[in-house]
Amino acid sequence: MAIIIKKVSSKKELKTFIRFNYELYKGNPYSVPDLYDDMLNTFNPKKNAAFEFCEADYFLAYKNDRVVGRVAAIINHRANDTWQKKEVRFGWIDFIDDEEVSEALLDTVAQWGKERGMKSIVGPLGFTDMDAEGMLIDGFDQLGTMSTIYNYPYYQKHMEKLGFEKDADWVEFKMKVPEAIPEKFVRISEIILQKYKLKIKKLKRKEIKEKNYGQRIFDLINEAYAPLYGYSKMTQGQIDQYIKMYLPLIDLRMVSIIEDEEGNLIAVGISMPSLSEALQKAKGKMLPFGWYHLLKALFIKKPKILDLLLVGVKPEYQSKGVNALLFYDLIPVYQQLGFEYGESNPELEDNKKVQSQWSVFNPEQHKRRRAYRKML
Q1: Number of domains forming the structure of the chain
Q2: Which range, of 204-213, 340-349, 352-361, averages the lowest pLDDT?
C-alpha cells in the first residue's frame, strides 16, 4: 500500500501531528512526553518568536488510512546566514519501523527544501538550539529528559540506509552529587575568585526584572554559544519569550551567577529538578492533574535527579576555571535539597572544555545523539 503524505493544514491535523508521538511511545518507560500546550505554541507562528526568521511546514504520513509518521520541514534563515549554508532542517520526526514511511517523510522535506533553494538536508533539529535536537543513537535504556529527543533504535538504521551521514554528535553525562566538595576543588575555586576579583551572586526574584538579569543572562548565552554547531543568536523577541516562559519556574537557589568587580555578568549556571517522571505521569496534559505532578516535582517533593540545564561563560573567561565556581556554589545547594544525581544537557562530543567541568561528579557518559546530513 502506497504511503500518502499530507501537509498539516488545520488545527485538527496539528493535534494529530503532536499526538502521534504520544501514541508511538505509549507505555515506553524511557520516553518523556512534551506538554501538548507547549507544542501547540511551538508550532504557532503567532506564539513562537523563532518565526521571525524561520519558515516551516508539518507533514503526516498515512498508510491504509492510518497515521504512521510525522515530520517538520524548517528553514532557519538566521542560522543559514550565520554559517553561510543553505540547509533545510527536518525536526519532530517519528515513524513506525517501515522504511517506506521514513523515506517518504524525508523525501518530502528534501523536496520542500529544494523548492526553496536549499542544497542540503540536516536534522533532527528544531527551529533553534532552544528546541530538542539530535537523534538518540546510544542510551535507549536510559530515562529521557524534558529537553531532549527519545526515539527507538531502528531510527538510526533507517537514516543510514537512506544515505544520511553523521554531521555532529552530542554526548550526555550522568553524575553523582558528591557527599563533600573535594578540598582541591575548594582551593582552586577560592584562588580563581581572588585572582580575577570575581564574586558569586544568588539572585532574588525581584532582581530579575528590576536589574534586568533575565536579559543579561540570555545576552551572555548568545555570546557564549555563538561558535557552537548550527547556533543562531536569539532575537529580542525570543529572549522576551524565554524570560516569560522559563524564569518564573526556576528555583533561584539552583541558579549561580558569577560577576566581576564591576558587576558585569561573566558566567551563569541554571539547574532544576528533573521533570521526566512528572511529565510521564502528566501524559502530555496539564489537565486534569498534570499540573499537580509538575508543581510537586518543582516545589514540593523534589526528585533525586536534577537537570543541569544551562552553563554559559563569557568567552574570555572560558579557559580560566570559572566553570568551577558555579559548582563550588551549587554543590552545597544540591546536597541540601537532597539530590543524588545530576544529568547534563547534550554537549558536542568535541567540546572538551565543557565536559571537563564535570570531573568532580564522577561522570558517566550514558547517552549519545546525532544530527545527520545529506546533500540534495
Answers
A1: 2
A2: 352-361
| pLDDT tens profile 48-74 | 999 999 999 999 999 999 999 999 999
Buried b (16+ CB within 10 A) or exposed e, 183-215: eebeeebeebbeebebebbebeeeebeeeebbe
Q: Strands 305-313, 265-273: parallel, antiparallel or unpaired by DSSP?
A: antiparallel
What CATH number should be reported for the domain holding residue 60? 3.40.630.30
Of 41, 47, 126, 46, which Cα lies nearest the Cα of 79? 126
User: Which residue from 112, 158, 119, 115 is spatially nearest to 137, judged by alpha carbons?
Assistant: 158
Say which amino acid occupies 302.
K
In a domain, 298, yes or no: yes
β-strand pairing of 135-138 with 364-375? antiparallel
**Are residues 227 and 113 both part of a single domain?**
no
Q: Annotate 246-286 with DSSP letters as a single string.
A: HGGGS-GGGEEEEE-TT--EEEEEEEEE--HHHHHHHTT--
- Grid coordinates representing 368? 549519545
Residues 122, 186 within the same domain: no
C-alpha pair distances (Å), 209 with each of 166, 220, 253: 42, 16, 17
Domain boundary among 170, 195, 230: 170
- In a domain, residue 375? The reply is no
Q: What domain range includes position 298?
A: 175-369
Other C-beta atoms within 10 Å of 298: how many?
17
Phi-psi region of 89 (alpha: psi -120 to 50; beta: other; left: phi over 0): beta
Same domain, 127 and 226: no
| Per-residue pLDDT reduced to its tens digit, 315-337 | 999 888 888 899 889 999 999 99
The answer to the question of residue 276 being in a domain is yes
Q: What is the pTM of this model?
A: 0.92
Domain boundary among 117, 140, 170: 170
C-alpha cell at 273: 529538578
Contact assessment for residue 147 and residue 307, using Cβ atoms and an 8 Å cutoff? yes
Beta-carbon count within 10 A of 234 CB: 22
Mark whether 81 and 136 lie in a shared domain.
yes
How many whole angstroms separate alpha carbon 189 and alpha carbon 157?
Answer: 45
305 and 210 within one domain: yes
